[in-house]
Amino acid sequence: MAAASPEESIMSKEKEANINVYVRIRPLSREEIIAGDKCAVTALKDGKTAQVVEEGGGYKLTTRTFKFDGCLGPTADQDQVMERLKVVKMLDSVLEGYSSTIMACGQTGSGKTYTMSGRDEGVHKGNNLGKMERKEDGLIARSVSYLFESINKRTSNSDQEKIYTMRASYYEVYNEQVNDLLRLDAPPRDVKWSSKDGFYVDNLLLVDCETLDDVFAVLEEGSRNRKVGSHEMNKDSSRSHCIMTLHVDSNFWIGDCAPITRYGRMLFVDLAGSERLKKSKSSGEMLRETGNINRSLFTLGKVISALSEGKRGDGMVPYRESLLTKLMMESLGGNSLALMIACVSPSSSALDETLSTLHYGTCAKHIINAPSVNMDARDKVVLELELEIVRLKKENSLLRSKLGLADEEEIATTVTIPPYCASAKRNKSPRKTSTESNCKTSGLAKADLGNPSLEKQLKGLEKLFAKDGNFYQDSSYQSVNLPRTDRSLMEDFERHTNRSIPSVHTSGAFSDTTWSNVDYERAERAKSEELWINSMRNSINNNGLLGVYRGLGGSKCKGQQHISRKNRISVDHLSARTRKAQSPCKYGVRGDDDFQGSITVNENAFQRLLNLSTPVGDKDDDFYQY
Ligand SMILES: Nc1ncnc2c1ncn2[C@@H]1O[C@H](COP(=O)(O)OP(=O)(O)OP(=O)(O)O)[C@@H](O)[C@H]1O
């Protein structure tokens, strides 16, 4: 099966998808080791299961296992996290116009910020020469690098013109208000709702990012400004939920239409950690923060739980109970691809929180999202129609090839219908002249050379002609504007043979000599079309005439044959429409009404026509004799 185009793959991806949940177990911290904590959580070899060993009363041990899409142990480094979590797949989707969300949850000090941002608020230190610690880069820095690389590849390797633009925003939800981390002087931002975007933060600063460094600058600024506090469990504890969003718009062009825009979005959500006041010993302002953090996480838990039970929509799921859940609506049960990283400490002393996080993750696994490309309704319709056209063209071409017909596209691009190709009722109305031949045939020569089946081309031509209303309606026909001498020659010829030349299209190569070289006398004497054709062929060879293919009718006549059986196809259809009131015809003699028209082809095609294997002039042939 042929590979689907990016546009096709977009549409085909529009199906429901579960939230992917991974667990990351960090190493025991120095403090935990000093405190003599044991390692109670391990990642099993299957790479998916987290095993928790709980000490009961006495020597009783309880082992519990939790299975996820993946489970990474304390030795997994940042590289492996990026790879095992298949982040690249999500980023590719963003470039195709999807929303993707990566969220890190877990108790305080469990490694959420380390996973998302790396060590020391791990913004990649690309700007600070000498401080490059790429190994420690978190998912955000790695993702941004990948996006830029991928955009470069996509724009330079693609035939299709595409333009990507990236903008970044960074905000935090702190004490039930939204702060723009890129504009500390600004008052808290409002969260609004629109039918198109759902809940969104109003008036957020979106920074245009043309380079990697632009995004890193945003990350540094945001990380510096987020609320951090110090407590017993984490000296750099995030006191807010932070959401960094990359808006990746892609414009691409189909045909001559206005560009189609897709609005990809990548959300990195670093949730504040839940904490037990008894352990964190928070007090004062921090106590209030803790209350708000725990409250919003509790609401998040309710939302996750409702969604995992199959409840859907704003009414059934308590999104509106906190700012965080409002802003996560698209990521949880919405149209975003989503990945949750449940971060846990392996310490036996943190077991309650770890179990709570693992339950959280287990619930989240059941949430089903319906990812879809973000684009304007008009663009969606245009794209759908374009895809439909592509599909129909493929189907048409398959059917045509099965029927042995020419590829319509090939013909359409190579031939235009000459307006003077009219049905001929010759001698009944004066021949009209047109000033210029506008029959384009050069493309046909190419097609003809490459494609041995002239029959196919003629069939296609005939179809094109059939579409031209004039062909049937015009009772006269037009010829090209020949010089007077030529015309008189032609008239001579017509008088002499009692036949008209129904339609002759010429190119610049046509000249007086061309016609004077045609041996009419000989053709008439020969009473054989074959000989006439030969004389024409000589003429063509000698003089470079583009060529004439005469459409000879006779489908309703007994013993019908034309120049050959093969090219008859191109004529029959026409004749059925144009020859209603014809007189009966006899072999070798044809009434005027029998003429069906002509198709001009270039020299190559014409010569090919003359060389068709089926012999001309069969006994039963019903042809013109010039
Ligand atoms: N996988 C890991 N490998 C090495 N060190 C880690 C790992 N995960 C976390 N750490 C270290 O543990 C400490 C706490 O991690 P971090 O600040 O990321 O926790 P957190 O979950 O974001 O906490 P909070 O919710 O309080 O902000 C940090 O010093 C961090 O460097």
Shape: globular
Q: How is the biggest beta sheet arranged?
A: 9 strands, mixed
Bound molecules: adenosine-5'-triphosphate
| Unreliable residue runs | 121-132, 413-455, 457-486, 500-523, 540-607, 609-626
End-to-end separation: 53 Å
- CATH superfamily label of the largest domain: Kinesin motor domain
- Tally of separate helices: 23
What is the overall pLDDT average?
A: 68
Fraction of helical residues: 25-40%
Domain Kinesin motor: 18-367
Binding site for ATP: 106-113
GO biological process, one term: microtubule-based movement
Pfam family, one: Kinesin
Describe it.
- This protein has 626 residues and is α/β, with parallel strands linked by helices.
- A hairpin with a 5-residue loop joins β3 (41-43) and β4 (49-55).
- 39% of the residues lie in helices and 19% in strands.
- The two termini are 53 Å apart.
Give the arrangement of secondary structure elements.
Blueprint: H1 6-12, E1 17-18, E2 20-25, H2 30-34, E3 41-43, E4 49-55, E5 61-67, E6 70-72, H3 78-84, H4 87-95, E7 99-105, H5 112-117, H6 139-157, E8 162-174, E9 177-180, E10 191-194, E11 198-201, E12 207-208, H7 212-225, E13 228-231, E14 234-238, E15 241-252, E16 260-270, H8 277-280, H9 285-308, H10 313-316, H11 323-327, E17 336-344, H12 351-364, E18 368-369, H13 377-403, H14 408-414, E19 432-434, H15 442-450, H16 454-467, H17 469-473, E20 478-480, H18 484-497, H19 512-517, H20 520-526, H21 529-543, E21 549-551, H22 565-578, E22 597-599, H23 603-610
Helix pairs in contact: 4-6, 14-15, 15-23, 16-22, 20-21
This protein binds adenosine-5'-triphosphate.
Adenosine-5'-triphosphate is lined by residues 26-27, 29, 106, 108-114, 119, 234, 236-238, 272-273, 343.
